[in-house]
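U., I forgot to send this yesterday:
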Amino acid sequence: PVCAVGVAAGLLLSVVVWASCTSGTTSREDRDKTAALFLQLSETMSLPGQGPATVVSLSDLADDFPEVDPSHFCDTKASMATEELIIQKFALSDDWERQCEHLEDKPFGTTEYAHRNWCWAWMKHEASHWKYAHGEWSWWETQQRLAAKGLAPEPETERIEPLRRSSLCERPTLGGSTPYREEDLAVATKWVSANVAIYVLNLDTESDRLERMKKQLSEMGLLETMVRVSGVSLADPGSLKAAKAEGIVANSFIMNETQFEAYEQGMGGILGTVGCAAAHFRGIRTAAEVAADAAAAAAAEAAAKTAAAAAKAQEIAEAEAAAVAAEVTNSNGNSISNSNSKEAGKDKGSDREAQQKEKEKENKQEEGKEENVEEGDGKGQETRDGKARRMTGQEEQQGQEAGSKPLALILEDDLILETDFSIRLYRLLAEVPCDWEVISLKSSNPFGTCISQHIMRVEPDVNEPAERCRYGVNLGSFGMLYKVDRLEKVSNQLFDKVWSNQPHCLEVDVALASISDKVSYYAVPSIQHPGFFNEGDFGSMRWTLNQQQSSETH
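Result:
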């Protein structure tokens, strides 16, 4: 039935669009009629348990192009989801809680621990593996499919609900392109160029990936916003030691012990995973350093302007003092008969003397500020020298330009970006709450709460133990958007979690989801297809290195 309705919807929409196109123009009234017809049909298309689909007027989408708050990069009217954060544990009946704990059939590659909910383990396993062959499915559909095998309760009677308010954002059609005008695209592209620095993680050996990414960004008018960050491969001897020295891997991280624990938990090799995590931290650190350099340069420029203004004021004060001295000299040679004039002269001289002292005091204060700025520049220079080992020539120049931008987007290099990427990003930030610190632009196995049509608030899955990093939800670190002014706080917390010698925490997306009660983390559900991007056809270097390590070890 769902397929039949989907075909009917496609036919209806095609007919309406064809009718609109043949007229040569599409008026607001025509678009509203199209939206109304589609809304009527959509009410019969909703998935079980999700309620009717929400359809926005096409005229609203095209004509009422959203505005992003320039100081917050968000929807200032949206409620702060963090303030309402609810840590949810599944509430199953006693009967199903026992059944889920004692299922005999268990997903391949999973390991046991006390009181594990195997129904939930099956749901995550099914959702992760089914998508590669059949595309993304909703949690409802996943549970329904497992219920038919006796591996989960029927969702109609006892629902396992990882994503609350799922009817709002757990819909494939929400990832499709929406109407926009050429001027909208120009506005969005200009906005992204001015506010978002794009850092692409790329191994030195993978030039083909880099060239494809540069070509995509060039066609979108975003190439000037890109900074390449060298990826991290731990296949070479001494590479882990070098990564620790650089500060992108914690000195407390013990590779052998963590690898042993990973085998115990059925994970296999972790060499590629560790390198991927280190590369993300290099990207985060590069973004932070570039921003710090830009701030130092701006401070130095402001200090120079202040010093120039102070010097000019000093020059004026000295000229005025000289004029007063000359006047006094002339008055000494003349007879002054009026005592009131004398007193007036004294008052005038006193006022000028007081002004002179005030100017000298201000100048001393400015000199102190200049000394502080110069000391800061020295520290900044050390940072720049360190960064220059990874960024040279044009990349370093682009990095300097990126530093003044308030948002940092870290992309992995094997992505196929949608051509309206700028429009999507601009619109997303027009609906996300202002407390956001990190946004994943594509996250599978979503766990949390839908906040708006395209965004969810990520929450830690307390149904899984903390020592396993609450693994299995909110997967995907392909495109991570950060607020630069929150980078230090987020990076410190994430760094401690990733390098805690817990093997599942080595995956940046998993670690970040596990601390989402401390970090304001949002995500775009990957069921929204195609969304911002799709994975390319180059294959996963992380997976390849992990497999090589596993085969060599065993």
